[in-house]
Write a structure and sequence with these properties.
This is DUF3592 domain-containing protein. The protein is α+β, with helices and mostly antiparallel strands and 191 residues long. The chain has helices spanning 3-49, 109-118, 149-178, 180-190; strands spanning 55-69, 76-88, 91-95, 124-130, 133-138. It has 2 domains: 3-42 and 151-190; 54-140, no CATH class.
Length: 191
């Protein structure tokens, strides 16, 4: 192989690598946006608003710990499953939200165990419900640590995606303004 064909192969590999990193970066940005702004932020806003919601009486119908097994690992995560019934203006509803973010599974079984013990079957509870959408309810209003999970995790994905794509896009802009030969010369001198 001569020097010219090695250079072309290297250039082609760099282009494929850049495109792959760009693609993965954009996937991270998309997933991060969905997690942070479609799931996380509405959850946070609802949790903050729930402190002002009206209340009604309810009763716990089901209370247990759910175990989630990972297919590629022997470890398990746990989450509490509490289902309660309540009534708003003569209409009956069922809810399963103890606090906003309680659907996040953790490896700490004791957290789920405490929740299940706190809300045994047949316990009378006070239910906070959204006056605009009474089917949305919660037993413990407000913001908790796990309420931030989707928002923060989404921003982690967004940040990684932005880091992955910004370097490549910045170099492409430089190439437009400075010309490809100057950038190639500076890259060769860096090697």
């Amino acid at each position: 192989m001569n020097h010219q064909s090695i250079y072309r192969t290297k250039t082609r590999m760099h282009q494929v690598g850049r495109k792959l990193v760009l693609f993965i970066g954009f996937v991270f940005i998309f997933v991060g946006y969905l997690m942070a702004y479609q799931k996380g932020l509405p959850l946070l806003e609802r949790a903050k608003a729930s402190k002002e919601w009206p209340t009604t009486d309810g009763v716990v119908l089901e209370s247990k710990i759910e175990s989630h097994h990972s297919s590629n690992s022997s470890s398990s995560t746990y989450s509490p499953k509490v289902i309660y019934r309540y009534e708003v203006e003569g209409q009956k509803f069922k809810g399963d939200t103890v606090w906003f973010g309680n659907d996040v599974s953790t490896s700490d079984r004791s957290m789920s165990s405490k929740t299940v013990k706190k809300y045994p079957v047949q316990k009378n509870v006070i239910v906070y419900y959204d006056p605009a959408e009474p089917a949305v309810a919660v037993l413990e209003p407000g913001v908790f640590k796990t309420t931030y999970f989707f928002y923060l995790f989404g921003w982690l994905f967004l940040g990684l995606g932005l880091l992955m794509t910004s370097g490549i896009l910045f170099r492409s802009l430089l190439r437009l303004f400075r010309g490809p030969t100057e950038i190639q010369q500076s890259a060769d001198s860096a090697d």
